[in-house]
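[scheduler] slot 2 assigned
[scheduler] job type: sequence-to-structure, two independent chains
[scheduler] chain ordering preserved from manifest
[runner] begin chain α
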Amino acid sequence: MAVAAQKSVASLMRKTLDRQAAVARMKFRFKKNQVEQILLSYIRDGNSGPYGELLNVLKDCQLNDDNYRILFEDCLSCVVLLGRELKQFVDVLCNIEWASRDEELVEVYSRFMLSLVTAHTYHAPKVMMGLVKLFKDEGENWDDEPPEKTITQWSNIHTVIAQIVAVMPMTSDLLMQTVIEQFPYYKAGCYTNRAYIHNLIWISKYIPPLREQIMAAIVSRMVEMDVNIVDRAKNQAQVETVFEMEVEECDEVSDTLDYCMLEMLKWLEDERDQVLHIMCSVFERIILPTHGIKHVQFLLLYAISINQQCADRVFANLWIVAAGLHGLGPGALATRRTAASHLAGLLARCVRVPNTRLIHYLRTMAEWCHAYITATQESTVTDNTKVHGAFHAVCHAIFYLVAFKNHHLFTSKESLNFVESLNLPRLVTCALNPLRTCPPQVTRAFSSVTRSHQVVYCQTIIEKNARHTLQGNTGLNYDDWFPYDPYNLPKSGKIIWPLCIEYNDWHKDGEDETQYTSMKRKLDPEDDDYLIPSPSQKLASSLTNCISPGFRTSESIVT
């Protein structure tokens, strides 16, 4: 018992002494050349007492302007001493608050950091990490532009980064590596992720060679958020109740992705020619191989909406992948099917896709399918889903487009003749039976439209497939993912929705409400200014076509 009491007394005394030491450090005042003398004493004589006290002071105390100035002026005068043995001291200097100080003091810090990394390149990783980490500081989310004070602080940080890269170009690789390593976790919150992305875009403007790597890093993280949202939505659909905490967490990730999409859309709008083709490359490398996401791919829809050259490239490359016109190696089938889904979705949904492009790709896809049927007529393979998956995917794209664009494809005798020239009956009745694996909602819409216009009669095949499924007592796992079906993020949706075409059910003319106006009514029922375009919506303001649920559920399809 006595031993325990002694330990308790000793602990209290230690805490008291620590507090007294902290108070004493708060009242300290640097003298000119004092820091340099402490460092010299440590390096030459191994005098660790003052050196350790200096480290504690810098860690524990908020430096006033006078102490700050003396510290970094001393460090500038003895920067040659700051070798590897003073790594701990350099680490502390990198963590001192400086970006919000007066311009003169920021300049002192900037000169010191530049001198440090040029004199001792091995300190560059720590210096770069200290700079990049400042982009992750906490703060309040903003609407149009960050507060002026925050912009000033960020500008100070970017100035130092730009100066280091200008003097030492090879540090741009180190910067990119640091940017990726320091990327916030997607659950870190809306402000943290948005601020970080905002500053990465800022970096891309004064270090253009890093543009593509920066965009790839941002899109990769946004895809991760999107996948998380989709997975949580699936999990919620499988259970009757969801914990309130899980719902709030999902909403937070959705909110984060929404604002990150705003930052990316603004980037694409502001720089256009410089970044649109980079967006196309990043789509092909990162977004295209990812199946099932709901939001990030709309960056591509926006890109092709404001640049026709970009649209030509995207459509051509998607068709090359879907048709297998170049080898893709293992996993090619999944990528080809995803490419076919993106191709059909963009041709159907994007407001700026002319009918001539729609007709060209419908004809190209149909010709490819007919050639495929001819080439496999003598095949004895029965596992259509696995072996002929690419053929099925392209057929599904055709069925989707014919159903979705029915108002364009059946408006005149000339357009009807074009549809008949596609020889759709041969696709429907061939031995490969693409209707068997087609999502039911697309099958019903395609069957209804083509039967009404006497182009092809699908009901017999549909009933036969249904009997086969029942007799086999097995169900098919339909791929009911439509990449450009409704976009549900409200903030960025104000830019995206006007660029998307609604699905017009040909049996239900006269229903004027689209998803755009419906979301306006649900999200902001009393604000009539919701539909007034902001400056960032100058492209969308001239467009009147919107988006509606389309093929998302079978209830929206005529049976």
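[runner] end chain α
[runner] begin chain β
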Amino acid sequence: MDQPLLQRDLGQRSSGSCRMLKTWLPILAWLPKYNLKWLQMDILAGFTVGLTAVPQALAYAQIAGLPVEYGLYSAFMGGFIYTLLGTSKDVTLGPTAIMSLLCFSVVGGEPHRAVLLSLLCGLIQAGMALLRLGFLLDFISFPVIKGFTCAAAITIGFGQVKNILGLQDIPHEFFLQVYYTFYQIPEARIGDVVLGLLCLAVLIMLMLMKTRLGCDDAPRYSKIARTFVWAVATMRNALVVLAASLCAFSWEAFGHHVFSITGKTAQGLPPFKPPPTSDTTANGTVVSFGEVVEGFGGGLAVIPLMGLLESIAIAKAFAGQNNYRIDANQELLAIGVTNLMGSFVSAYPATGSFGRTAVNSQTGVCSPAGGIVTSVVVLLSLAFLMPAFYYIPKAALAAVIICAVAPMVDYHVVADMWRVHKLDLLPFVVTFLMSFWQVQYGIMGGVAVSGVLLLYSTARPQMKMSDQGVPLITLASGLSFPAAEHLSHVIHTKALQVSPARSVVLDCHHVSIIDYTVIHELSDLLRHFKLQDVDLIFCGLQPSILDVLLAAHLEGLRFADSVQAALQMASGNLSTTLSN
């Protein structure tokens, strides 16, 4: 090989290796373009998101049934990992309300099992990314997602009513929870009720103020006021929790136990250690790794899939809004590695957060590096603020959770599905109702119903039938093996079970796929047509379909380019027959 050709070949290989490396490490694509302005915006956005992430992480740990510090343990690893592996500048990874609820439904609030669940979820998610299995998420339909999120929001929101009322010993099962919450209302603590309702009112007021800010072309003094209102409203969770904690501390300092408070929390950063591979029950019995995994059941499939679905949906939404593209499989890898590494710092499963991602985007983040600043804020909170978390009222955290999940109850979608496609309400309703029993059963039930509907549409493809002197059957989609028996029955009914038997024209303009089962059924049909001395004529065959039919050596196969030509052949005006 001469020197120029060798140099060009080496250059192409080097270029290909560079592209591959940038695919697996997206930071290499944007880091060379990083500048001072990006740094300023990333620090601002990361700090703002951090002030939102800390109170939310504390609150979501309660949903998972874990000590509040586990929420913070789960909130910082994602920022570092996503900076290296993520393809969206806006997405922030960490604990979310839905993942916390799913985690509780599987591990029942046991910290060791929650950490092991994070490890296994990370392995599954990273494995799916490496095997390019992201397409599996396409089988979870929108009605299933909406049914689940609506039910989860109601379950999570009502689950916090007991903390607003200051009630104790309320069961975790939803229906028992509803019964005992209303049954024990007379035992409600006045201090928790007043503080909880006040926190709710302030959070709702600030949220409404943020949505009703004026236009950008207002006078300067108005812009300053808008910026101030936006900043206060954006940090509303942190401000409300801080104010409530100061109030609780004041009462506690004078010896008055007016509020139910969070209580003692573990101090300092979590140790970096391998996640536990076994567990020990309260009576000292050691539970092996296999028994723990067996206890996870279907949750070990549902939680990784829902984590991926939630994060990728968020990434796609903000990518479209801000005019850039994401790599879905790379997002899977980022989430998987986050959960995998998070298990070494006692984290439970994390995913993308819609609320914090929205704050990140609205604050003007320029790169995934904003997540590093958010993670540093969380780490500083763990290192220095844990003693102060002792005084956080449970009613304040409950108010934060209720306001976070309330927008997830999208009742408008029911009317939209009724108007657009009523059958989609079936998986929605099944998912919604079953999720009150067990959230993972709701998802699996909804996916099963969606699968049945999908299989039914495949097994019963749409066919338009008309009489043009001879029966004309127009197929509206591809033909695969579930549809073979139905197609044969329709043709038999229209052509061979009448007296006298009639020829049939099969319009295949829309058929782009066909398999061996259908070919076998067509072979039987052609034989029956031949015995009845009538014809089955194909028209509008695409080249790939015609090649398959010819390769099958179907006896008595007849076809035409157009419907008109096929009708003339069926009427006996043309007699071109291809026999093999």
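[runner] end chain β
[qc] chain β: The radius of gyration is 31 Å.
[scheduler] slot 2 released
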